[in-house]
Design goal:
This is Spermidine synthase. This protein is an alpha/beta fold. The protein is about 30% helix and about 25% strand. The chain contains 8 helices and 12 strands. The strands form 2 sheets. It has a 9-stranded mixed sheet with strand order 1-7-6-5-8-9-11-10-12, with helices on both faces. Strands 2-3-4 form a 3-stranded antiparallel sheet, covered by helices on one side. β8, α5 and β9 form a beta-alpha-beta unit.
């Protein structure tokens, strides 16, 4: 049974959840046309959206053989793509935190989210409050943060204090991936907040997708694996789990390196 905790918003104030279908793909919406998650009907446990695939970039920093012994946590369930993939494909212990009980109900009814069990738990709670529970500290190896309201204008939680709470969840070699997207969002402001919490040397970032999603990865313990090692991991991830990771390193770099390149270009 999913665990319900006191949340800061009543169910009446939360947006209505709806679904749509575009040929072979089903989408989740929160009261607007904005797509908040997707699933390919013929392969419900694969990750359909490119930006969500990129949120699995933490796989570049761990040995593939150790993955199934790790713990994944998703803040903001959406269509459950990350949780389903980690649970079904990677055989990980998984926790998801979701504020809106409608999202959970629709995810279970229409997006093939499995029921809770020994290795899968959905907590109905405010993520900002839930992650401060001491029971989670230091237990998460892969943290995915994708917290948007129905307008998708900017991340709902995007402060240095929130990211510091996220960092406290992580194991020593744990990683957080966060989706930065929105019409009113500021990438630079978000990266500054992430840098305050993790240190800028711990940050990696993808170039934006065509849709405008920028995925940033933050390491609990900063590392700079050789490019050849990262490429080998990317190819192994693609071969083993079907995520198109082999092309990632063309668009995935340390934030410090990207910032230095932009500074040099400005000076030139």
């Amino acid at each position: 049974m999913s665990t319900a905790k006191t949340a800061s918003k009543s169910s009446a104030s939360l947006p209505e959840v709806s679904i749509s279908e575009d040929g072979p793909v089903r989408h989740l919406h929160l009261g607007t046309p904005w797509i908040q998650g997707s699933m390919r009907l013929a392969d419900p446990f694969a990750i359909e959206l490119e930006y969500v695939q990129r949120m699995m970039a933490w796989l570049l920093f761990v040995e593939p053989a150790s993955v199934r012994q790790r713990h994944a946590m998703q803040l903001g369930l959406g269509a459950g793509a990350i949780t389903k993939f980690c649970y079904k494909k990677l055989h990980m212990c998984c926790t998801a935190v979701e504020l809106n009980p409608q999202v959970l109900a629709v995810c279970r009814s229409w997006f093939k989210l499995p029921p809770d069990g020994p290795k899968l738990r959905v907590v109905l709670a405010d993520a900002a409050q839930e992650i401060r529970d001491p029971m989670w500290l230091g237990t998460v190896d892969a943290l995915a943060v994708d917290l948007y309201d129905h307008e998708a204008a900017a991340p709902v939680l995007d402060s240095a204090a929130f990211y510091a709470d996220c960092r406290a969840l992580l194991s020593d070699d744990g990683c957080m991936t966060v989706n930065l997207f929105g019409r009113a969002s500021s990438y630079e402001r978000s990266v500054q907040a992430l840098g305050e919490a993790f240190g800028t040397e711990a940050l990696w970032a993808f170039k934006p997708t065509r849709e405008g999603n920028t995925i940033v990865l933050a390491q609990r313990t900063p590392s700079r694996p050789p490019r050849a090692e990262l490429q080998a991991r990317a190819e192994a991830v693609q071969a083993r789990w079907g995520i198109p990771a082999a092309k990632w390193l063309r668009v995935f770099k340390p934030v410090l390196a990207t910032a230095a390149k932009n500074t040099n270009a400005t000076r030139a």
